[in-house]
Specification:
The complex is a heterodimer of chains A (203) and B (138). Chain A is built from 8 helices and 2 strands. Chain B is 30% helix and 25% strand.
């Protein structure tokens, strides 16, 4: 879902940059007021982790490859605002070094993966009772909403046919979200077993 | 006589529907793959002539191996937009100067070097933030 430069029209590029920069400014102001200094190195480590997992895509058997975003895990460990900041730094590094998403399309990528992944995913997680189901639904729900946004942006830029792409994208990113939710659940279970106090420190 | 002339014109029209072909040599080919090495199979490609960004010169699709070929008809930098229809893709620029076309992009660093650099930049950004917050709180 890392949209490269040259795919989006100017209005879509400017609109998505506007939304993402506004959300990033708001998140940074809020987090910067309340953050403890010892949490920042952990944010750096998690940003490096997210940077790494987004680099490795895996085939899902229908002639395409997908990757995890890590946004759901970040928002549960640190809250959606801090998670969104981490996603912004990681996506910037991916864009500058790997052209994994463009510089000008960073706004769209941050909106699709960061804003939806962190805030919508966290919303599902908090609203739905029962951790296991809430994580699965959060992963699938945020994946599908990201797919809808991505399809809208590309269709508005005349890069694909909305009617053709939407179903495929929703299916592929729904499945990816299912994997993301499951892996997030496994990581949280693992952290609870080996270092439960870490979760309390982070939250 | 008039009927004969009309029939001749009709025959010309009919023969105009025939299709012939000429075999071509050369052209420019690309193979597109994900970083995992899997090909972008049956992915849409739009080809734009130099200086053109709105109207495509050619619309095409990669084959099952992620391969696509086209034949440029003018010199300059051509643009190819490859999309797998899921938001992943690549904009490729090809220099055509009368000799063999070549990609404008030349990778200079390895994937491992880029990963190390990326982690370095990320940790640097958070280190700067850490020291600012520490100074503010002390």
């Amino acid at each position: 879902m890392h949209i490269p430069d040259g795919f989006l029209s100017t209005p879509v590029t400017l609109g998505t940059i506007g939304v993402s920069v506004t959300a990033l400014t708001y998140s940074f102001k809020k987090v910067n007021q309340t953050i403890k200094p010892e949490q920042i190195p952990l944010m750096g480590l998690l940003a490096s982790f997210v940077f790494m997992i987004q680099l490795f895509s895996f085939p899902i058997g229908v002639g395409t490859s997908v990757h995890l975003t890590g946004a759901l895990l970040l928002s549960i460990l640190l809250g959606p605002r801090a998670g969104f900041i981490i996603m912004a730094v990681s996506l910037l590094a991916l864009s500058l070094l790997f052209q994994h998403g463009g510089i000008f399309s960073l706004g769209a990528n941050l909106l699709n993966m960061g804003l939806v992944g962190c805030f919508v995913g966290y919303g599902f997680y908090r609203l739905i009772p029962g951790e296991r189901w809430s994580l699965i639904i959060a992963g699938v729900g945020s994946g599908i909403i990201s797919a809808i946004l991505c399809a809208l942006e590309l269709a508005a830029s005349n890069m694909l046919e909305m009617s053709v792409a939407l179903k495929t994208m929703m299916l592929i990113y729904g499945v990816t979200g299912l994997i993301e939710g499951t892996i997030t659940l496994l990581i949280l279970d693992f952290l609870r077993k080996i270092k439960p106090e870490l979760l309390d420190q982070l939250s | 006589m008039v009927i004969l002339i009309l029939l001749m014109f009709l025959a010309t029209d009919l023969s105009a529907h025939g299709v012939t072909y000429t075999e071509l040599q050369g052209g420019y080919g690309i193979q597109v793959s994900y970083e995992s090495g899997d090909p972008l199979e049956f992915s849409d490609i739009k080809v734009f002539q130099p200086g053109e960004s709105e109207y495509e010169f050619q619309l095409g699709m990669t084959d099952q191996n992620g391969v696509f070929m086209f034949k440029p008809d003018t010199i300059g930098i051509w643009t190819l937009k490859v999309s797998d229809g899921l938001g992943h893709g690549k904009v490729i620029q090809v220099m055509v100067d009368g000799s063999r076309p070549s990609s404008v992009e030349t990778p200079s660093t390895t994937r491992f070097q880029k990963i190390i650099s990326g982690i370095g930049y990320i940790l640097f950004i958070f280190s700067v933030w850490y020291f600012i917050v520490r100074r503010r709180q002390s």
